[in-house]
Amino acid sequence: MSKVVVLGCGIEGKHMAIDLCKPPGCDVISVDIHPTALDDLAREHPIQTRVADLSTPEGVTEAVEDAEVVIGAVPGFMGYSMLEGVIRAGKNVVDISYFAEDPFGLDDLAKEMGVTAVVDCGVAPGMSNIILGDHARKMKVTRYECYIGGLPKSRDVLFEYKSAFPTLEVLEEYAGSGRSVESGKVVARSMLSETATMEFDRVGPLACLPTDGLRTLIRTMDIPDMAEKTLRYPGHADQMRALRDAGFLDANPIDVNGVSVRPIDVTSSLISPHWKFEPGEVDLTIMRLVIAGEEDGRPATYTYDLYDEYDPATGTLSMARTTGYTCTAVAQLILDGGYSRKGISPPEFVGRADGCRERVEKYLADRGVRYRMQRS
Asked: Buried-most residue among 25, 32, 33, 190 (CB within 10 A)?
């Protein structure tokens, strides 16, 4: 039985460990610094656990020493150092930590160690890149658009939003900018600068906010027009603009009665309890991909749509399903020898490999995550 070590026992890490241990699954070890989360996981599933500080090189090295494949699901601020530690240990790895650093800074090391390291392997970036990579080897792509959102199904919550990701990371994204490629040039815009909306079945109008989700695609794809936008309820976008304009998302410290504080940290602390999903609370994931260009000498446009909800049978949030199951599907590819490129592989590289996209799609479909495609 293959041994997989999952680093991080948050929402995504927990459900990836559960997915991988299901028959005829893997021998799974879940590692986290918080023993309570691990105890809860081991109580209900045949998963081994280890308590370790994954922010240290020693903690990472010890945690992965007997792994065949490692899953990375740690907070973004420690993702790069974690990945480096896994690679130095000579372990193949699939990661969804979404760190800010350039993953290709570890490419030479991964090749030297003979390691396959797939990064950004969630839903978007992740499955979106896999689909694009598959198309890019079959047609000349000239336009790529990705619209992706994870939302509470009920809008009757604070700021019409809840998140499976850390609140501070979400707010930092709102305070930042997103990059797109327009006529071959990289353009940066404030995430909250646009007010465009798009209509979606079963949800209605959603605000489209520019994000930095293209990430590796800016480097790996020669496509003149590319954009990724985050989908939010329009009311939420308006409220976040108001917080930004009032200074609540500022990262520069201010003095409050002799105490230096960052406004964004205070905002995050106040909002975090309200943005956590309660047990049984329904979330949804919605995504649309548009891939256009020339195929067999003719114009072609492919549109993919995903709508997914919380699974009450397993208690799994949709964002954990759509993100985590893409990651575990690619981990299975590596275990089975279906993908073995050495070095850093963003998911678009996985999509370029024969048969990989189809296997990932089947893996997701078997778990109820299905993409609908239309060609025009």
From this structure: 32
Q: What is the radius of gyration, based on Cα positions, of the chain?
A: 20
Helices (H) and strands (E) in the chain, counts: 13, 18
Task: Note the helical H segments in 283-366.
Answer: 318-336, 347-352, 356-366
* Locus of tokens 């209509």: 199
Q: Does domain 3-122+319-369 have CATH number 3.40.50.720?
A: yes
Top-level class of domain 127-309: alpha beta
Alpha-carbon separation of residue 68 from 4, 144, 264 (angstroms): 6, 35, 40
- Under 8 Å CB-to-CB from 81, ≥6 apart: which residues? 55, 57, 60
Confidence grade of residue 319 (pLDDT, cut at 50, 70, 90): very high
Q: Is 288:147 a contact under the CB 8 Å cutoff?
A: yes
Please state, in angstroms and as integers, the Cα–Cα distance from residue 160 to each residue in 20, 157, 229, 283, following that order: 33, 5, 18, 12
Pairing of strands 298-309, 371-375: antiparallel
Q: By the 8 A CB rule, do 153 and 282 touch?
A: yes
DSSP letter at 369?
-
Amino acid 299 reads P
Please list the residue range(s) of the chain that carry CATH number 3.40.50.720: 3-122+319-369
pTM summary value: 0.96
- What integer is the mean pLDDT of 326-350? 98
Query: What is the predicted pLDDT for the residue at 23?
Result: 85
